[in-house]
Predict the structure.
Amino acid sequence: MAAPFVVVGAGIGGLAAAIALARAGKRTLVLERAERIEEVGAGLQISPNAGRVLHEFGMRAALDAVAIEPRALNIRRAADGAVLARLPLAAARERWGAPFRVFHRADLQKALLDEALRLGVEIRTAARCDGFAQDEDGVRLDVGGEALAAEALIGADGLRSTIRDALGLAASDAPRPTGLTAWRTLIPIETAPAALRERETHIWLGASAHIVHYPLRDASIVSAVAILEDRADRLPAADMRTGEELARAMGFGRWSRDLRNLLEAGEEWRRWPLYGRPELARWGRGRVALLGDAAHPMVPFLAQGAAQAIEDAAALGRMFADERATVESALDAYQSARAERAIRIQRASRRQGANCHYAGPMAALRDAAVRLMGGKGILARNAWIYR
């Protein structure tokens, strides 16, 4: 039997890559170091550019069963709750071929896992890749002391990728703090402020901080994330905070009552420090390549982290569907097809983050510009991402 194509990491990107490779006719093995495949975290937004890929994978019905399609995205001023712009999302499916969807991360991962297994992908848990070597004949992996032969190796093992570390693609490449911390929680819908229970997404813009929330699981819960600049945090470091503590840390005491009520409704907010790594123009060497956060980690201000990993997977599958391609030429073509767009979105996400956290006169100018552009104008400005 031919050696498999090995994907390291069973997150969103790794499972999407396994599906794409299996659809291209490649025997595929996924190695996951955790003992069980179960995603932590909370909400996840999947925009039309990634939704189209998942439709091509034949997953439309599976997605619709676990997702919510928000009617609109509301950009709000945290100080008084004013809606600066309302982005109508209902027409996205017709305009861009797929809707905006929000998921509990675990639900999307389970849907991808089910599809990968249906396609015959082998999933091996409690399996850590401790190293690899490659030559013109293939890749040899050390998996917990066991030697494993592979046709190709895809590192989809996240921001702290051991595959990326081993490749040594850039100097001074260690993960570095972005100066931002995400605080996440899930709130029962009945404890959220009544005005914020509708099937819509809300983004609240404040000085050095912003909050995003939307309903999940048939609107039974609200997923909320508060992103705070570390220098603006007003309390000692902690891995978990109550809603009241988080509101105090963010200086939200005199801001919109609905927003403060939402914060306080979250009994436990968990800390997720945000890290980055340098941009890479090349994501691999020979028969080894990176995918998703391992290749291009990005701050979450455009909600494109998972979406770009899914786009990576689609490109990977396209290159290997060409029967004339060698492993090396397919991986080279994959990187060439994806790197420029991923870097562009990394940079745009950083710019968007600065825009979200303005204070004083800069915030006033931003708010005026958002009002002037309006929801349809903002969607048009970002159409390059979605189409």
Residues 327-356 form the longest helix (30 residues). The radius of gyration is 21 Å.
